[in-house]
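OP here, attaching both records as promised.
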Amino acid sequence: MGIFDFFSKEKKESLDKGLEKSKSSIFDKLSRVIVGKSKVDEEILDELEEILISSDVGVETTLKIIKRIEARVERDKFTNTSELDTILREEVAALLAENNSQDVQNSFETANLPKPYVLMVVGVNGVGKTTTIGKLAYNFQKNGKKVVLGAADTFRAAAVDQLKLWGERVGVVVIDHGMNTDPSSVAYDAIKAGIEQNADVIIIDTAGRLHTKVNLMNELGKIKRVMQKILPEAPHEVMLVLDGSTGQNAVIQAREFTKVTEISSLAVTKLDGTAKGGVVIGISDEFKIPVKYIGVGEKMEDLQVFNKMAFVETLFNR
């Protein structure tokens, strides 16, 4: 099966469009570096290193990629600059393939998951957390799944109201207690409602701020403990939402959150309209936590299941 076989034509076009700025930024810089040169030499590799770092791939991941390309150039003795695109694509793909995070062919399918499947979502304000939850609910529902949402980010009235709006728009039940209420009691009631309504998926919106680590750890810990009173194995997944357009700030946020709670998946949003798409490669490489979804546009369908090979093929193919 080809890497795009499970993509619809629309999804492939959406991925191309969403990564357009990142892609053209990389290739504009790369074209200036190799103009008039036929052989990949040390100078070109130094420039390539700068290009990848400026595309927010991250220093550590960039050094790994450069090392792999250097070894290949050394092995092949003469590497033409016209082959650099292909080599770059192949070596980034190989690096990500070695990571322990698996691509998920269709993450909106729940056939092999426990029922109800409880997904707890964390992330700071402004990263597109609530919008991501709304789009997840839409896509699960489109796959014939019954969804219940829990508005447990209770410290911002806007977060609760926004989730309720998404619930109305998508046509799913939202459990809320309003603002400044105990997040864990909202999570408890959402799971209770989900069980009563025979829901396939329950998505709990939480912690919209990185306040002190101790407070955040305590709050998320309490939410989990209270959920487990009614469903011992909950949450089945803790997803961290990151804003890809913030580049290395997204990496810093991932580091902070992984210190205070166990993160089992990532969603990277707002990749359209930014040249920092390389951050997904750095995040995937550094954390070894599956990047499960990427946001490449405004439409509901623009929250896509992340496929490493399709992403690399799209980003590094002229």
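Record two, same layout:
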Amino acid sequence: MQLTVSGHHIDVTDALRNHVSEKFDKLQRHIDHINNIDVKLVIDGHVHKAEANLHISGADLFAAVESEDMYAAIDALADKLDRQIIKHKEKHRGH
């Protein structure tokens, strides 16, 4: 799994990068074929946004979350993608 973390109006520190890595490593427990993940962290005024494109075999998943705290946004983003992966896996299980 290739993980790319970029920032817009924010310096992506090692702490942020490690937090993203820890949260997104948990996504692999549901599916093994994650090719790459592109995470974009954005600060727009007082709003912290986290967006991710997840490329897996058979689909490209996208999620975006806004919060007042960047760490909370990353946590919510990982949860959203986790639910999308489960839904995708269940949808394709019957075929």
